[in-house]
Amino acid sequence: MSQRNSSRIGGFFNLIGSAIAVAAAVESGRAPRNRDLRGLGIEPEQFRKIRY
C-alpha cells in the first residue's frame, strides 16, 4: 500500500471518528469538541448557534 493510500484511509477514519464523537455529544446533551466539529468542516461558532 502506498503512503498516499494509507493517508487517505487514515483521513477517512478520522472523519468517521469525528462524526461519531459529535453525534454522541449531541445525543447526550453535551457540546461537541471544536476539534471534532472542524474535522467535519463545521465552524464551532456557527454550530453553537443551532438549537439542538
How would you portray this structure in words?
The chain has 52 residues and is an all-alpha fold. The chain has one domain. It has three helices and no strands. It has helices at 3-27, 34-39, 44-48. The model has no long low-confidence stretch (mean pLDDT 92).
Number of domains: 1
Number of strands: 0
Count of alpha/pi helices: 3
Assembly form of the protein? single chain
The chain-level mean pLDDT equals: 92
User: Secondary-structure element sequence?
Assistant: HHH
Largest sheet: none
Q: What percentage of amino acids are in beta strands?
A: under 5%
Q: Which stretches of 5+ consecutive residues score pLDDT under 50?
A: none
**Rg:** 13 Å
Give the structural class.
Answer: mainly alpha
Roughly how many Å apart are the termini?
42 Å
Outline of this structure?
This protein has 52 residues and is mainly α.
Features:
single chain; 52 residues; mainly alpha; 3 helices; 69% helix
Write the SSE topology.
Blueprint lengths: L2 H25 L6 H6 L4 H5 L4
